[in-house]
Description:
Blueprint: E1 8-12, H1 19-33, E2 45-49, H2 55-64
Amino acid sequence: xxxxxxxxxxIGVGGLNFDVTVRDAVALNNVLIxxxxxxxxxxxxxxxxxxxxxxxxxxxxxDEL
Length: 65
């Protein structure tokens, strides 16, 4: 059953010994949009990683959600 009322902004920034945060962010994104798990609508979940995790992109993602 889809969860159409759920929204998420997931941010993962890696780098020196922190690349696991990006993998975790991607894994969380995959769980949330999986219809057999959390079932969030794909339009309701935004994933930003590394260079895409700018202040401008984060604020834009909040506005979109």
